[in-house]
Amino acid sequence: MTPPSTPPSSLLAALHADGPAGDRAENMKLYGWLIGSWQMDATVISDDGARHAARGEIHFGWVLDGRAIQDVWILPGFFHGTTLRIYDPTIEAWRIYWIDPGRNVFRQQIGRARGEDIVQEGTTDSGMLSRWSFTEITPNSFHWLGEAKSELDSDWRLIVEVLAQRRES
């Protein structure tokens, strides 16, 4: 890769990319359709089953010379974090890194297409299994489910549910 002839003038300029890297553009389509800004209606479910609804926003963009997609999820009062999604050709899947410094939450997952959905799976710091799924995907909307369970549980527990709509440009 040839370095840019003019160094970027800021962190944002250095991070941003105009589109996917040519050597993996086809694989980048799994998450590439998300690029842009979204409005979300989210429900956070606490351990005692109480449901808390809030409205937030999500922003997705190409980063790191088009070899990754980064997003920012903002749900006031609940979370404000970022995900870095990187296609790894050695495992033919996506490495997912979620960071929410306000709650000191860090997750690593592996993401793949599963039928018409996108499913990301990993383990939390406490050893719980985590599964985050994009379902009911259209060009302008998606349903997102954040679930967890212990290895002993047979059923997944819903923790966060998001209904997202693309914002008009």
Topology (SSEs and partners):
Layout: H1 11-15, H2 25-32, E1 36-45, E2 51-63, E3 68-75, E4 79-88, E5 93-100, E6 105-114, E7 117-123, E8 129-138, E9 141-149, E10 157-166
Antiparallel strand pairs: 1-2, 1-10, 2-3, 3-4, 4-5, 5-6, 6-7, 7-8, 8-9, 9-10
What labels describe this entry?
single chain, 169 residues, mainly beta, Lipocalin, ten-stranded antiparallel β-barrel, 8% helix, globular
Task: Describe this entry's structure for a reader.
- By secondary structure, this protein is mainly β.
- It has one domain (11-166): Lipocalin (Beta Barrel), CATH 2.40.128.
- The chain has two helices and ten strands.
- A ten-stranded antiparallel barrel has the order 1-2-3-4-5-6-7-8-9-10.
- Strand 4 and strand 5 (93-100) form a beta hairpin.
